[in-house]
Design goal:
The complex is a heterodimer of chains A (141) and B (151). Chain A is mostly helical and 141 residues long. Helix content of chain A is 72%, strand content 0%. In chain A, α2 crosses α3 and α5 crosses α6. The radius of gyration of chain A is 17 Å and the shape is globular. With 151 residues, chain B is mostly helical. In chain B, 50% of the residues are buried. The chains are: A mainly alpha (141), B mainly alpha (151). Chains A and B meet through α1, α2, α3, α4 and α5 of A and α1, α2, α3, α4 and α5 of B.
């Protein structure tokens, strides 16, 4: 457990919560990021402005942090590009099919006590845990 | 127009939260998902903080009954647990477990312009568009077979 960072986790989580609460209080919308992003790609452009603005905000966060002297994010990714592409395809297809991801179902849906969202959250968590178990420890472990 | 600025502000705060919590780092996320390895419980603290503050804000929003910069609160209305919800969650979970990125952190990480992240986001977009194409095609073929059956 030496990697555990509970304080920054709680503070960062509270910021995520504040962002989701404000989007609802101000604009009446659920902060579901897969839905916001997909809407840009698959819908007419009648409501593209707020979607683009939200995503621009997401991308602006590390840029502003960089101005304050933090390094730009350089996440550790799988070495094989096929794994990255398959992972991306599954995340895109799955969140569209299941109507949400960690933000829309996991945070906003759980906060609404939605049985649909809580079910989806438990299922994608279990699927992810099993996937990591197989990738890192093999089927037999 | 104000609502567009508010959306930008919300995205900015959301991105800041993901950065502060360490959730833009796939290693940190995979550390949580790896319950058989050296387990890192941080993601549970992030979720707890996020859900608590969101629930408080949603309670205020419901009591007001109306958002400040728009005309209606768009609460999701469905309660059914159907096959697409379950199947979609399984597929998303597998992709999340393979790479350690879900849509929010993937988009925040775009700022670094690293090729692997760009590949992931493009694939994610293709998956979304591909899903809608597939669903529309399914619906169309289901409808045309109904017509044939009736004719």
């Amino acid at each position: 457990m030496h990697n555990l960072t509970p304080v920054s986790g709680l503070v960062g989580g509270a910021l995520i919560g504040l962002a989701s609460a404000l989007l609802m209080l101000l604009t009446g919308r659920i902060a579901g990021i897969s839905g916001i992003f997909a809407g840009l790609l698959t819908r007419g452009n009648g409501d593209a402005a707020w979607r683009l603005a939200f995503i621009a905000g997401l991308i602006a966060a590390p840029l502003l942090a960089a101005l304050a002297g933090h390094a730009l994010p350089a996440p550790a990714m799988p070495e094989r590009v096929a794994v990255i592409a398959i992972g991306g395809l599954l995340v895109g297809f799955g969140t569209r099919m299941g109507s949400g991801c960690t933000s829309g179902h996991g945070v906003c849906g759980s906060a609404r006590l939605s049985i649909r969202s809580i079910t989806a959250t438990v299922i994608f968590m279990v699927a992810a845990v099993l996937t990591v178990a197989i990738v890192r420890h093999g089927l037999g472990a | 127009m104000l609502a567009v600025f508010a959306s930008f502000g919300s995205g900015l705060l959301f991105g800041a939260g993901l950065l502060v919590s360490g959730m833009t780092n796939p290693e940190k996320v995979l550390g949580f998902l790896d319950i058989f390895g050296e387990w890192d419980a941080t993601l549970a603290f992030v979720m707890a903080g996020a859900v608590a503050v969101t629930a408080a804000g949603f309670t205020v929003a419901r009591r007001r009954g109306m958002p400040l910069l728009a005309t209606t609160l768009r609460w999701p209305t469905r309660h059914d647990i159907d096959a697409p919800l379950v199947g979609g969650a399984v597929l998303f979970g597998i992709g999340w477990g393979l790479v350690g990125l879900c849509p929010g952190p993937a988009l925040v990480n775009l700022a670094g312009l690293s090729l692997p992240v760009i590949v992931f986001v493009v694939a994610m977009g293709l998956g979304m568009v591909g899903h809608d194409f597939w669903r529309d095609h399914e619906l169309t073929s289901a409808r045309s077979s109904e017509i044939r059956a009736d004719g």
